[in-house]
Specification:
The chain is mainly α. The chain has a single domain (3-143), classed as Ferritin (Up-down Bundle), CATH 1.20.1260. 77% of the residues lie in helices and 0% in strands. It has helices at 3-30, 36-52, 54-63, 72-78, 90-117, 121-143.
Length: 146
């Protein structure tokens, strides 16, 4: 495993994180229905937490010696998460964010394996902390549709 592979995975993580945050913020702004207040607050907490990690993820890329992508076009090329142009019903919002969160977890697990293989201890520590957060997001998002 090479450091270059880790850098590319971290760039993908950054793009996925930005895409996920934007989608959660869209849902926060546009959710409707009888549980509006609860859903609005929940989506707000998700996008605030995830968007708060963007800068640190970008700094991890810089620590690895690479230039951090910083344009919507580049994020769109790198991200696995689809853009959301519609305003679906709340249940669909939760399901889509749960699916997207699973993509981020897959990205995190893969980056963790590579970081461990190249002895990038600081990046590994960061990835472990993000895995913990996204595992919590996973069960919370999925709990809404059970």
């Amino acid at each position: 495993m090479e450091k270059a592979q880790l850098i590319e995975l971290m760039k993908k993580l950054l793009a996925n994180t930005v895409a996920f945050s934007i989608k959660a913020q869209n849902y926060h702004w546009n959710v409707t229905g009888p549980n509006f207040a609860q859903y609005h607050d929940f989506f707000g907490s998700i996008y605030e937490e995830v968007s708060g990690s963007v800068d640190v993820t970008a700094e991890e890329i810089r620590k690895l010696g690479a230039i951090t992508p910083g344009s919507l076009g580049r994020y769109s090329q790198l991200a696995d998460i689809d853009d959301e142009d519609s305003v679906p019903q709340a249940a669909v919002m939760f399901a889509r964010l749960a699916q997207d969160n699973d993509l981020i977890l897959k990205n995190l697990y893969e980056a963790r394996t590579v970081a461990d293989g190249v002895n990038a201890a600081g990046t590994l520590d960061y990835l472990e902390s993000r895995i913990s957060v996204h595992e919590k997001h996973a069960w919370m998002l999925k709990a809404f549709n059970q």
